[in-house]
Amino acid sequence: MSASDEEIVRLLNGRNSYITLQDNEFTFASPHYMYLYYRDKGSFRALAGLLSREVGYAKFSGGCGTGSDALTLAEYALETGDLKAVATHCRKAVSKAENMSQIGIVICARFALIRLQLAEGRTTEALNLLSQMEREVEALSSSVYNTTVDLCRGYVFSCLGQPEQIPSWLQIGEIKASDFFSQGIAFNYIVYGKTLIALGKYAELESCIEQFEEAFSVFSNRLGFLHNRIFEAVARCHLYGPKDGAAVLETALTEAEEDDLVLPFAENAPHIMGMLNMVIHKNPGNRFLNRVLALCREYESVALGRSYPEATLSQREMELLSLAAQGLSRKEVAARLYISEETAKTHFKNIYQKLGANSKMAAIKLARDRGYLSMSER
């Protein structure tokens, strides 16, 4: 595509095209530019380098696509966890795009900045910027851009665990295969999956995994596949237990490691921490996994205002808590596991300390929230 653009520039010899115009929609309603073109595992860095060079398309379209070079660098830094580099590139992208009325690129850049602000714990700034963007786009009366902003809103409030703030069409799943372009070329499926997690609809989420996979396969959206694998891990964890979920999460982490993608995991931190700890327990020296864990802890702490002890529950402790979640008393748990009641008491004390809980019910709730127990263990 890049080579073709350069050839068009040569053939037009300084003239503008009569077909591709400045006001053409450049991002196809997607709030994430690199999402559109990242299709091969292991190609993310090279793709960022290619897309960050001057856009030939803008040279013959009257400026359509202006700012996408800086936007690329912002999104690459964001997804790979280089948070310090994101804001500068976002602001540069907005400045360049606004000069050429590139609304789609402005929305993408502000969406990246909002995600950065959440990751840094600046939630009020993030929500203020989202509200400003909504007001500005609403004034344009564009169905495409309104949809793009809805996707931004749904993504943000699903990360914050506030599903009631997500647009209603995303809450009820009004997403059709025929609406790829007006709904962000399947980016809507990422937001709908995150919405189902925020709503705690794990059975419904599991039933959608195959549909999501088919949607992302149309244009081979690699980031879509990654999010979908995380969705599957969360659903399986709550429906069938942490071991099942952790096996799927490990697959997602392996796929992400080749491109150093970390933020999608951090933005799902409250739902994957238990599973993530299980994966790391099997691979204690893996630098990528430990980097993901550190960012997940940071995201929970600053973005969501949650702070948990770093210790991991042992397999025995999870067994005790699972039995307690099924309604067994401490004495019954001890008998089931062939240990003394005093040993069971010690185990429960350690569990409470690790989870920061002061009762059995609080420990069970925290363990479910963090993926140590499935929803069926009640």
Label this structure with key terms.
Arc Repressor Mutant, subunit A, 2 domains, mainly alpha, 0% strand, Serine Threonine Protein Phosphatase 5, Tetratricopeptide repeat, elongated, 67% helix, 378 residues, 21 helices
Protein described:
This protein is mainly alpha-helical. It has two domains: 2-303, Serine Threonine Protein Phosphatase 5, Tetratricopeptide repeat; 316-369, Winged helix-like DNA-binding domain superfamily/Winged helix DNA-binding domain (Arc Repressor Mutant, subunit A). 67% of the residues lie in helices and 0% in strands. It is built from 21 helices and no strands. It has helices spanning 2-12, 33-37, 44-51, 56-60, 68-79, 86-99, 103-119, 123-138, 143-159, 168-171, 187-199, 202-217, 222-240, 242-257, 263-266, 269-282, 287-303, 315-325, 330-337, 341-355, 360-369. α5 packs parallel to α7, α12 (202-217) packs antiparallel against α13 (222-240) and α20 packs across α21. The longest helix has 19 residues, at 222-240.
Distance N terminus to C terminus? 54 Å
Reported by name, the CATH topology of the largest domain is: Serine Threonine Protein Phosphatase 5, Tetratricopeptide repeat
Q: Specify the CATH architecture of the largest domain.
A: Alpha Horseshoe
Q: What's the story with the biggest beta sheet?
A: none
Total of DSSP H or I helical runs spanning 4+ residues: 21
Order of helices and strands: HHHHHHHHHHHHHHHHHHHHH
Query: Radius of gyration, rounded?
Result: 23 Å
Please, what is the CATH homologous superfamily of the largest domain? Tetratricopeptide repeat domain
Helical content band:
55-70%
Gross morphology is: elongated
Low-confidence stretches: none
* DSSP strand tally: 0
Strand content: under 5%
Number of domains: 2
How much is the average pLDDT?
A: 91
The structure class reads mainly alpha
The CATH class of the largest domain: Mainly Alpha
